[in-house]
Amino acid sequence: xxxxxxxxxxxxxxxxxxxxxxxxxxxxxxxxxxxxxxxxxxxxxxxxxxxxxxxxxxxxxxxxxxxxxxxxxxxxxxxxxxxxxxxxxxxxxxxxxxxxxxxxxxxxxxxxxxxxxxxxxxxxxxxxxxxxxxxxxxxxxxxxxxxxxxxxxxxx
Length: 156
Prior knowledge:
The chain is mostly helical. The protein has one domain (7-155). It contains four helices and no strands. It has helices at 7-11, 22-47, 115-121, 124-155. Helix 2 packs antiparallel against helix 4 (124-155). The N and C termini lie far apart (43 Å).
């Protein structure tokens, strides 16, 4: 299953609060919708076996985020797009933005387990389950924010 991101999707970086009303609130809600769709696409990729071993590199599991359609460089190993321009950067702690591959430091659990930690200490199945739970949690949170933003907009 191939999931493709549009150029606009890949450029979304920061999720911003949607508490304000008016034109700015509508734009923030639009950004939340874009991030929500990207998270749902990543979950769909995961659910359809996107992180199962690939024939191109059967000796290892694919890298989470890096080898999925979520990564603007997933088909371009020369990394023409800077990681800092990736929409996933909003989930990377600020002090880790300068890492060579920042998306490896997305905290997936409340205990602070990151993609990088899972590479070192978890099985592929455990890693996929942690990513699945993280994706579902963020999808629920953003859906709730969108509902709240709509309620605020309709009250105004």
